[in-house]
Amino acid sequence: MAIQISSELLDGCVLGILLHDDYYGYSLTQKVQESISVSESTMYPVLRRLKKNDLLSTYDEPYQGRNRRYYKITAEGKRQFEMIKQDWQVFKGSIDKMLGDGVDHE
To answer: Which residues form the Transcription regulator PadR N-terminal domain (predicted)?
Structure first.
């Protein structure tokens, strides 16, 4: 059974990757896929939504006669990433307790 990832957590994953470097769509999808299972058809709507919400900006760079669209995290995206990261830490701690990591056994 695969655990489904929420859209907020997927947003956090994308924003976290873009904290370190800008990526074009396909390379960003591959980077995310190194850790979680996500399809290209899932990623592009996420990128469009993040851009629409001013969490990402884009720019084009020529590559072998074509343009690649690169995604860059914005200042607002960095703030949103920190909020998602904090929420994740609380959620992860709660789940870890229920799954037996750090549970006090009476």
So the answer is: 14-82
Distance between CA atoms of residues 23 and 69, nearest Å = 8
pTM: 0.85
Q: Name the average pLDDT for the chain.
A: 91
The SS3 assignment for 101 reads coil
Comparing C-alpha atoms, which of 71, 88, 74 is closest to residue 8?
88
- pLDDT tens profile 14-25: 999 999 999 999
- Find residue 72's DSSP bridge partners: 57
**Domain 7-98 falls in which CATH fold?**
Arc Repressor Mutant, subunit A (1.10.10)
